[in-house]
Amino acid sequence: MFPTTSSSEPGFQQLPLNTTLPRDWKTLTSGPEIPEMPLVCLTDFQAYAQKHLSKSTWDYIEGGADECFTRDDNITAFKRIRLRPRYLKDVQEVDTRTTVQGEEITAPICISPTGFHCLVWPDGEMSTARAAQAAGICYITSTYASCALEDIVATAPRGLRWFQLYMQSDKQLNKQLVQKVESLGFKALVITVDVPKLGNRRQDIQNQLDLKMNLLLKDLRSTKERNPMPYFQMFPIDASFCWNDLSWLQSITRLPIILKGILTKEDAELAVKHNVHGIIVSNHGGRQLDDVLASQGEYGVEEVLNIIKNEFHTSMALTGCRSVAEINQDLIQFSRL
User: Which of 52, 117, 277, 284 is catalytic?
Assistant: First the structure.
């Protein structure tokens, strides 16, 4: 549909929800130092994050399943894309704005759903939400958010928010979650369809990283359940969820339903047949935005989003596009690596 960009570290202090961090955020926290050299591209942020995060946290963010072939193929595929420049066009005014599901955003960019942001910054998803609001783009909040949904909404009340849902085996829990996010003002429901079972993440196993034992997600605790049971025992993902179940989901909400993880022509056609509002083509391989929570939190995310938006603006100008509507497939080609 459009491009996507996902426990507190020792030494951080938790700030009140309404605190506005100055640019010199180091005066408020004894966390990582501000880098001496400016971070000017995503690779810089990635290197900074790797330097300051623990090995287990870094491996969780950067790692893929099994031998990481899919993750590496993703990177290689993007490197093959080349733009075909078109010159002698009036690009004095380039407008990157567009709409998604009827809502205006400043550029066709969104933050894809990633969980456990509090692993790398105390404010976790609240920092991410504020940065997305400032950038004027859509933030898809994960089922695995480590902050309460109410707090995420309160900290960025004007932001465009969608909610990503892993369908749970407990049908009533699914209904409660959907009704909750609808009442909180989320504008769409993103159903992840490519995880009937969690992938085999070897690095997490080797590092003995067990997030489900350490982070009990606030919004998935039922009102009845208070014992410290591991998350995936309490709320297992429903491996039986299929196309026919979409009608039940559509019957309990007025939110547009987006399917995340569609990769084939056949499934895209089935999505249209079942009246979903959109698809996100994804193989669950990207978690790059998690890196920038490890560098200045909210402002790190905001800086990365500005870098992406500026690069997108430059690409539009160099290909002779004055609006998003003028972008077409003739402007790209694929090189042989």
Answer: 284
Q: How many CB atoms lie within 10 A of CB 282?
A: 20
By 3-state DSSP, what share of the chain in percent is helix, strand and coil, each rounded to 5? 40, 15, 45
Q: What is the mean pLDDT of residues 57-76?
A: 68
CA atoms of 47 and 51, how far apart (whole Å): 6
Name the DSSP letter for residue 167. Answer: P
CA–CA gap between residue 285 and residue 79 (Å, rounded): 15
Per the confidence metrics, is the pTM higher than 0.90? no
Nearest to 89 by CA among 286, 331, 261: 331
Instruction: Give the residue carrying structure tokens 């605790």.
Output: 221
Bridge partner list, 190: 164, 258
3-state secondary structure of 160: strand
CA distances to 68, 74, 86, 110 from 140, rounded to whole Å, are 24, 21, 34, 7
119: CB partners within 8 A, 6+ apart:
7, 57, 60, 146
What is the chain's mean pLDDT, rounded?
79
Q: Is the dihedral of CA 70, 41, 292, 323 positive or negative?
A: negative
Two structure tokens written together for 56? 């287990």
Please report, for residues 84, 122, 128, 148, the alpha-carbon distance to residue 133 in angstroms, rounded to integers and kept in the order given: 32, 19, 9, 18
Q: Which CA distances in Å does 121 have to 59, 144, 190, 291? A: 16, 15, 25, 10
Instruction: Encode pLDDT of 197-227 as tens digits.
Output: 555 555 555 655 555 544 445 555 543 444 4
Planar angle of CA 152, 153, 154, nearest 5 degrees: 95
Rounded-to-integer distance, Cα 159 and Cα 134, Å: 8
State which amino acid sits at residue 22. Answer: P
Active site residue 284: yes
41-55, 114-128, 134-148, range with greatest mean pLDDT: 134-148
